[in-house]
């Protein structure tokens, strides 16, 4: 799955690499760590506005949700969307057909289960590139307040061999798209029968992974700090690879 991100990159580099612009009033600040369960707002490129970073909240709220209570209830269940069922599940199928998006990131965190221990890893592109994660989004209107919110979900696919060893319980990973596939994913003319050509595990050689400090595992800690990206060794990991 994918419930944590690092977007440690300045606005100007995001704009240059992804060929898109931030609006003047979007005050994006890079972060070392963010958890989906805090429902953060992050910059997203949509198929409707592929050249503008739109602030979207993590946790997709389908457009047909009626009340604030229902919205709060569903968004914790829609942080990720499994590729295999996005065109079938009621929460996702409208967005999957019509509202595709890309979430930029410099890496993400996963936990490896070894006995009773959970060891945190940081996974990032081998060459320090900006990851482009495939997602779907929804624009929801709160009928009680009139507020309009853009929300998203990150699509997951079966893990590649590297992530199978790290995320060794669920064996899933985010759909990471190289630039040419990211462009195709945002193409407004893309047909659903072409999704399987785009949404597939990236090869393990594209990624670098290393273990990081246990501070990243405790939500009571301040995890938005450079310390969460520093390599950290665990005795248990010696026999893994």
Structure description:
- By secondary structure, this protein is an alpha+beta fold.
- Helix content is 17%, strand content 33%.
- It is built from six helices and 13 strands.
- It has helices at 11-18, 68-75, 93-98, 161-166, 179-186, 195-198, and strands at residues 4-7, 21-22, 31-35, 41-46, 52-58, 80-82, 100-105, 107-114, 117-125, 131-141, 148-158, 172-174, 207-211.
- The longest helix has 8 residues, at 11-18.
- The relative contact order is 0.18.
- The model has no long low-confidence stretch (mean pLDDT 95).
Q: Which percent range fits the helix content?
A: 10-25%
Instruction: Return residue spans where pLDDT drops below 50 for at least 5 consecutive residues.
Output: none
Our count of helices gives 6
Shape call: globular
The CA-CA distance between the termini, in Å, is 22 Å
Side-by-side strand order of the widest sheet:
3-1-8-9-13
Structural class: alpha+beta
């Amino acid at each position: 799955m994918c419930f944590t991100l690092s977007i440690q990159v300045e606005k100007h580099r995001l704009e240059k690499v992804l060929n898109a612009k931030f609006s003047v009033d979007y005050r994006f600040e890079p972060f070392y760590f963010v958890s989906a369960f805090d429902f953060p707002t992050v910059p997203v490129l949509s198929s409707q506005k592929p050249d503008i970073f739109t602030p979207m909240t993590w946790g997709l709220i389908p457009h047909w949700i009626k009340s604030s209570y229902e919205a709060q209830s569903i968004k914790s269940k829609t942080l990720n969307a499994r590729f295999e069922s996005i065109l079938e599940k009621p929460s996702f199928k409208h967005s999957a057909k019509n509202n595709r998006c890309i979430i930029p990131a410099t890496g993400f965190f996963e936990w490896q289960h070894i006995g009773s221990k959970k060891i945190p890893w940081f996974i990032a592109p081998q060459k320090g590139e900006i990851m482009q994660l495939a997602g779907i989004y929804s624009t929801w209107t709160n009928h009680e307040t009139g507020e309009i919110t853009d929300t998203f979900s990150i699509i997951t696919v079966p893990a590649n061999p590297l992530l199978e060893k790290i995320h060794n319980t669920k064996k899933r990973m985010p759909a990471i798209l190289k630039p040419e596939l990211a462009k195709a994913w945002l193409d407004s003319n893309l047909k659903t029968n072409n999704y399987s050509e785009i949404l597939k595990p990236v090869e393990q050689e594209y990624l670098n992974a290393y273990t990081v400090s246990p501070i990243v595992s405790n939500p009571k800690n301040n995890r938005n700090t450079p310390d969460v990206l520093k390599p950290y060794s665990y005795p248990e990991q010696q026999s893994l690879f």
